[in-house]
Amino acid sequence: MRVLVCGGAGYIGSNMTAMLAAEGHEPTVFDNLSTGHTAAIQGTHLIRGDLGEYHLLVQTLRKYAIEAVMHFAASIEVGESVLTPLKYYRNNLCNTHTLLSAMETAHVERFVLSSTAAVYGMPLEMPVKEDSPTQPINPYGQTKLAAEKMCHYQSRTGRLRYAALRYFNASGAGNNSTLGEDHRPESHLIPLAIQAAMAKRSQLDIYGTDYPTPDGTCIRDYIHVEDLCKAHLLALDRLRTDSEIIYNLGNNKGYSVTDVVETVKRVSGRDFKVVQAERRAGDAPVLTCDHTRAKQQLGWEPEHPELEQIVATAWKWHSEHPNGYPD
């Protein structure tokens, strides 16, 4: 298929672009490069543009005869969303509206939306299932849920077939560890711990050590980025027959912050300073996924479920790219 990958120069988007090409599809990247890296998509055609540019989107969809769209171009930082909510409503909701409008004009029906576990807010029961209550507690989760609802109502018109994929913690490096995580600034635990191991930061802060968990630190569900991307391919194929599908994508297994720290130390063979800090507002003690629906309906299951595997691929990429992607 000819697939437009919005945000395709970013972390997950670049891995998706590489996998689409490897599987015989024809990806075209649409990215404003505000957080993406051209070095991550070498050899793939890039349209540099913003999702707010309706006419450019329509032109692109028609020029390249696009058959499906994957959307990875949202803003993703929970803390930032609290400080600048209008940015998140504009990019995650208004720009998604513009993208869907362009797709409708160009008669492109298939759409895969990068969503998030943040739509569940502070779940009372673990692991989280797709029919768990959606009660987001920050603008990031709220705008993602609103984008899902917009897709739902558009699908009822018969002009959209969509998959909303609710990620837990995307991690690791894909495409033989050649495509890694390079956020600026970085906020995700595994790359932060790796930066500490590489002495690129003086210490790693752990926020809260008194949670009701076995070691007192938060537990999260980490999924390798390649496993995530494989689920997208399966979901895209299922949209040939289904008009609306929603899946949780995670490992069905959680690891604590302490587990991550010890795994990075073991994989890297390096020690680093860890500092205990106060809890952050809104951090759930445990957040893990039930991916039974994706397993049963898509035939999907993570191939890299162990934390050590995930960290090893991330460590390899960071070791070979100590300064990240070239500017």
Write the layout of secondary structure elements.
Elements: E1 2-6, H1 11-22, E2 26-31, E3 46-48, H2 54-63, E4 68-71, H3 78-83, H4 85-106, E5 110-116, H5 139-155, E6 161-167, E7 169-171, H6 189-197, E8 204-207, E9 219-220, E10 222-224, H7 225-238, E11 244-249, E12 255-256, H8 257-268, E13 274-277, E14 286-287, H9 292-298, H10 307-320
Parallel strand pairs: 1-2, 1-4, 2-3, 4-5, 5-6, 6-11, 7-10, 8-13, 9-14
Antiparallel strand pairs: 9-12
Q: What's the main sheet like?
A: 7 strands, parallel
- By CATH reckoning, the class of the domain at 2-168 and 224-249 would read Alpha Beta
Topology, number of strands? 14
For the record, the CATH architecture of the domain at 2-168 and 224-249 stands as 3-Layer(aba) Sandwich
Mean pLDDT: 96
Biggest sheet: strand arrangement: 3-2-1-4-5-6-11
Give the helix proportion (percent range): 25-40%
Q: Give the helix/strand class.
A: alpha/beta
Order of helices and strands: EHEEHEHHEHEEHEEEHEEHEEHH
CATH superfamily of the domain at 2-168 and 224-249: NAD(P)-binding Rossmann-like Domain
Strand proportion, as a percent range, falls in 15-25%
What distance separates the N and C termini? 31 Å
Contiguous uncertain segments of 5+ residues: none
Number of helices: 10
What Rg is obtained from the alpha carbons, in whole angstroms?
19 Å
Notes on the protein architecture:
The strands form four sheets. Strands 3-2-1-4-5-6-11 form a seven-stranded parallel β-sheet, with helices on both faces. The chain has a three-stranded mixed β-sheet with strand order 12-9-14. The chain has helices at residues 11-22, 54-63, 78-83, 85-106, 139-155, 189-197, 225-238, 257-268, 292-298, 307-320, and strands at residues 2-6, 26-31, 46-48, 68-71, 110-116, 161-167, 169-171, 204-207, 219-220, 222-224, 244-249, 255-256, 274-277, 286-287. By secondary structure, the chain is an alpha/beta fold. It has a domain at 2-168 and 224-249: Rossmann fold (3-Layer(aba) Sandwich). It has ten helices and 14 strands. The radius of gyration is 19 Å and the shape is globular. Strand 1 (2-6), helix 1 and strand 2 form a beta-alpha-beta unit.
